[in-house]
Specification:
The structure is a homodimer. The first copy, chain A, is of the alpha/beta class. Chain A has 2 domains: 56 residues, Orthogonal Bundle (Arc Repressor Mutant, subunit A); 182 residues, Rossmann fold (3-Layer(aba) Sandwich). Helices cover 36% and strands 25% of the residues of chain A. The first copy, chain A, has a 7-stranded parallel sheet with strand order 6-5-4-9-12-14-15, with helices on both faces. Chains A and B meet through helix 7, strand 6, strand 7 and helix 8 of A and helix 1, helix 7, strand 6, strand 7 and helix 8 of B. Strand 6 of chain A pairs antiparallel with strand 7 of chain B. The structure holds a DNA duplex.
Chain lengths: 250, 250
DNA sequence: ATTAAATCAAACATAAATGAACATAAACAA
DNA sequence: TTGTTTATGTTCATTTATGTTTGATTTAAT
């Protein structure tokens, strides 16, 4: 039996029976548990199952049911994976800024590090993080933009000037070597710029559909970015490397 | 059964309207109560349920019947009525500040006036108001206090200094002629003071249980208050009148 | 207001499961 | 042939899920 066949059967088993143990699967297919774990890891990455300690469960009947609006976004799965990856880059006792945005949004859910201080201008992140008492959460404040639920403007910017963080997780609508990092709204762009000023390392968190896109307002030239967390390399990724930008793939 | 499955079922049970006791769930799933508590803790963190002493209830307050947690606060109905009254005091084109707090919380729901600009330091209010595109919403920012979901501290205060509003709707834990307006946390008190500084008129929004209560941190002397929106006059209301404080009853 | 019972959080203990590093062997390519 | 890749197995330090105990809180009853 080939690995692919085995994986296919594992998905079947889990989807029909709703859960399966690593030990059971190992016995069933006559392979080591390490192999099963590797299979499950892959299947989780492609969103076909959800792993648990000891095995895996169907992704369908698990807690988070994507809302209607979320389902409409075909890059949702990528976004969530990218956010998970980004969250894994946070070390214990880091101070970080998380920008508002459809991808960065999900970082909170996967933040596991201890003693983290988070600065954010996202209403959604503020709401989610306000439930966690294992980290310090600082909100920038500012005028709320209904469309993006970001807090922006002078209030946000003057708050951002107060802090120096280790890592910034930045979202945007377009990134290109030639045209830089861009977003549609000029006030939001200015606020993002303030975030960049206060961060030691800048992680751009985008799905691959944003490469070579260009929006109206320039945030900064591409060279300001230190890392790009994404799901696929752009075609001209050599040029990014040349600028000293490192890629972190999910 | 995996932890994930168990948690999923717990959510189901609770969302389907049934409250659940820790002891019942432990027996049902054949695990220790400590495990159930840990499950509930996590589910509460992700906002899926709300814990109570002895168990948990649904977080979605769409229930027709007042949930456990609501019943626990016997002043809830008063709070909501008071908030409704407070909201009715807002005129078209007013600029207002709404403090965080269990009573002020509800004001957003009843805000009908047009062209209003709202300043708030409440995470919950920011979240609720961010959905409305008929008003400008400015968030103070600041460090989030997990307990009260208020944003406080220097960031909040320096933001508040930027604005002059027509009306402030202030919450507190105690008000007395002699001891003034008080709240348990000193940082929160300082932030409330900053709100008062920037407001032309101060409306204290409290249910009648707060009269003659005294908490640790002084916000301001009673004389700073212009109006008190509440459900019942205090015994010494003549003294309040003497200070020029007017009562607005629901 | 006091007391008793229920519930809780925190600290500790433990066994199972895991991830990471390394090892092996078959398949493949030069 | 020889080197490289791929899938798998093995070992072990670390993490996770869970249970247990204990002292503190909360609630309910007197």
């Amino acid at each position: 039996m080939f690995a692919e066949e085995r994986k296919g059967k594992i998905v079947e088993i889990i989807k029909s029976g709703n859960s399966a143990k690593v030990s059971e699967l190992a016995k069933l297919f006559n392979v080591s548990e390490a192999t099963i774990r590797r299979d499950l890891m892959e299947l989780e990455q492609t969103g076909q199952i959800v792993r648990t300690h000891g095995g895996a469960v169907s992704s369908q009947n698990t807690n988070f049911e994507p809302s209607f609006i979320e389902k409409q976004d075909k890059y949702l799965k990528e976004k969530e994976e990218i956010a998970k990856k980004a969250a894994s880059l946070v070390s214990d006792n880091d101070t970080i800024t998380i920008d508002s945005g459809t991808t960065t949004q999900f970082i909170a859910k996967y933040l596991k590090a201890k003693g983290v201080t988070v600065v954010t201008n996202s209403v959604n992140l503020a709401d989610e993080l306000s439930r966690r008492d294992d980290m310090e959460v600082i909100v920038t404040g500012g005028v709320i933009r209904t469309k993006t639920k970001a807090m922006v403007g002078p209030v946000a910017e003057s708050a951002l000037k107060q802090f120096r963080v280790d890592k910034l997780f930045l979202g945007c609508n377009g990134v290109s070597i030639k045209m830089g990092v861009t977003t549609p709204n000029i006030v939001e762009a200015s606020t993002k710029r303030a975030m960049i000023e206060g961060a030691k390392e800048v992680y751009l968190v985008v799905d691959s559909s944003k490469f070579d896109e260009v929006s109206f307002s320039l945030i900064c030239p591409a060279s300001k970015i230190d890392y790009i967390v994404t799901d696929k390399l752009p075609n001209d990724y050599e040029k990014y490397k040349h600028l000293g930008i490192e890629f972190i793939l999910v």
